[in-house]
Write a structure and sequence with these properties.
CATH superfamily: HUPs
Largest sheet: 5 strands, parallel
Radius of gyration: 17 Å
Structural class: alpha/beta
Order of helices and strands: EHEHEHHEHHEHH
CATH topology: Rossmann fold
Number of strands: 5
CATH class: Alpha Beta
Distance between the termini: 44 Å
Helix content: 25-40%
Length: 230
């Protein structure tokens, strides 16, 4: 496998990042999975990310520790309640409190650093601009701006020997379309976790925005939801 076929995949252990990883593999990339222990409400998503990395035969799965609780400002990293049972109109309104300040900028920056060390030209991220909770760092214009910045920020790019591409294969897909694509690639979504506020036993709450979008996606895809809900 040539260096140009290495790819760093940001992995949260959820539906979107898992599907993005499967797509990268289907396109012939050697997968390097990158997850973060960033002070999120639970570590269960990291358990899911490890399962995904193993199932999809990632060359390496790296978990980086960064404590975003010191910054706070999000229901995922601070003493703020996770919103529950919101309808689609509410989700489409203001940016929710589950938004983690600058998270994708931070995560992509680490991915960029690892990609440079690996001599990998490609980074995959499972952002989605259709069925999502209004996060500003999931928009195409953000990804395009980060890619431009990435190619100004690395030694390899500046010296002209390579360029970085940020792949967003899901960005214009609905959650149902993402699930259908992943199912075509043989993903067992039972190993993934989307919930913002799962129980200590690992059961999804079924009521946060992420659970509601997940349920809706499986229903619209006509595929049985394998999630264990509380």
């Amino acid at each position: 496998m040539t260096d140009s076929k290495k790819a760093v995949i940001l992995s949260s252990g959820g539906i979107d990042s898992t599907t993005a990883m499967a797509i990268a593999k289907s396109e012939g990339f050697e997968v390097y999975s990158l997850s973060f222990s960033y002070g999120q409400r639970h570590s269960l998503e990291l358990d899911a990310a490890r399962k995904v990395a193993t199932a999809l035969c990632a060359r390496k799965h790296l978990v980086l520790d960064i404590d975003l609780r010191l910054i706070g400002g999000s229901a995922l990293t601070d003493e703020i309640d996770v919103p529950k049972d919101r309808d689609e109109a509410d989700m489409a309104g203001d940016i929710p409190v589950t938004y983690v300040p600058a998270r994708n900028t931070i995560f992509l920056s680490y991915a960029l650093g690892w990609a440079e060390v690996l001599w990998a030209n490609d980074i995959f991220i499972g952002v989605n601009a259709v069925d999502y909770s209004g996060y500003p760092d999931c928009r195409p214009e953000f990804i395009e701006a980060f890619e431009r910045m990435a190619n100004l920020a690395t030694k390899a790019s500046v010296q002209g020997s390579t360029s970085i591409s940020i792949h967003t294969p899901l960005i214009q897909l609905t959650k149902a379309q993402i699930i259908q694509r992943g199912s075509e690639l043989g993903i067992d979504y039972g190993m993934t976790l989307s919930c913002y506020d799962p129980t200590d036993q690992g059961l999804a709450c079924g009521h946060c925005d992420s659970c509601l979008l997940r349920r809706k996606g499986f229903a619209e895809a006509g595929i049985l939801d394998p999630t264990n809900y509380a």
